[in-house]
Amino acid sequence: MGSLRALTGRSRDAMPAPARALLRRMVLGWGMLTARFRLQPSFIVVGASRAGTTTLFRVLSEHPDVVRPTVSKGIWYFDIHHARGQRWYRGHFPLAWPARRRTGGRAKTFESSGYYLFHPLAAERIGRELPGVHIVVMVRDPVERAYSAHRHEFVRGFETEDFETAIALEPERLAGEEDRIRADPTYLSHHHRHHSYLARGRYAVQIQRFIDAVGSERVHIVDADRLFTDPGELTALFDALGLAPWQPEEVGRHNAQSRDPMDTALRRRLMDSFAEDDRALAALMGRTPHWRQGDGDVDD
After folding, report:
1. Which of 163, 198, 235, 238 has the fewest CB atoms below 10 angstroms from its CB?
2. Number of separate domains in the chain
3. What is the CB neighbour count within 10 angstroms for residue 81?
4. pLDDT tens, 203-225?
5. Is residue 12 part of a domain?
6. What is the mean pLDDT of residues 99-109?
């Protein structure tokens, strides 16, 4: 099984899709059989999607004390696959003994699922099932995040409208969806997952759910722009997560997509619409978000 585990790295990407699917089933099947011998996550990156979570996942995975999940970056258990149960979830993580041997007993594992932050039930599920876990939230300029998310969904075929039309349709698309998810936890909302461009940028209300679930001392907010420019941002995160000081060779942007620039007037209008939300976020962060520095209408 050790050689099978090794195949879940880069060589897997070169395999035909049916072979990858078979490999995934085999690895997860073995993972479920050995679930009680596996590490539980010490921390979870819960989002926001299109806010640098792929970059952060790669940086954290390179830390000498961290062992990544066995199959993929995200497991999507606390939002989409919760009915599969805790043994299924635990089966995604590395076996404890080899991981601890490799790291001199310091092994920590984690996952990164970007929908957790926005899903209305994920925070309370995490707080109930992993009461000691730390939560990492990446935040980014909400207008740029929305524009990037639209491009991402459009390229993948989940969106057919242009950006301005899509955000105009967003309130209608999302109307009642959160209530329906709460009423029926098995319900998977296409609109909630794929068409929540502006709503996902209202970070404070989403972060507050995690603070309520696990406590403010275990919720760590990372400003994506500072992550790329200020080494201290990563140092502070490592310290909060109980990881030894370490500096990667570089923190490059991953999973970025090129697109045409946004209309200036539209951008200004959207930035104005986020002013109150950004003030609430600044209060949670204890500092002004990078994208609002020098913007006097946000700092009180």
Report:
1. 235
2. 1
3. 13
4. 999 999 999 999 999 999 999 99
5. no
6. 94
Q: Could you report how far apart the first and last alpha carbons of the chain are, in Å?
A: 58
Tokens of 17: 């899709």
**Residue where the block lists tokens 């149960």:** 85
Strands (E) located in the chain: 43-47, 66-67, 108-112, 134-139, 219-223
Long-range contacts of 235-239 (CB under 8 A, 24+ apart): 237/136, 238/63
Calpha distance 34→134 (Å, rounded): 24
Domain for residue 6, yes or no?
A: no
Domain membership flag for residue 5: no
Query: Residue 251's domain spans which residues?
Result: 34-292
Q: Does pLDDT of 12 surpass 80?
A: no
Per-residue pLDDT tens over the stretch 161-202:
999 999 999 999 999 999 999 999 999 999 999 999 999 999
159 vs 193: CA distance, rounded Å: 11
Q: Which residue has the tokens 């076996």?
A: 95
Neighbours of 211 (CB within 10 A): 17
Global pTM reads 0.90
Residues 6+ apart with CB under 8 A from 211: 219, 284
Residue 125's nearest CA partner among 210, 68, 207 is: 210
Percent of the chain with pLDDT over 70: 90
Q: Dihedral (C-alpha) 40, 186, 20, 154: value to the nearest 10 degrees?
A: -110
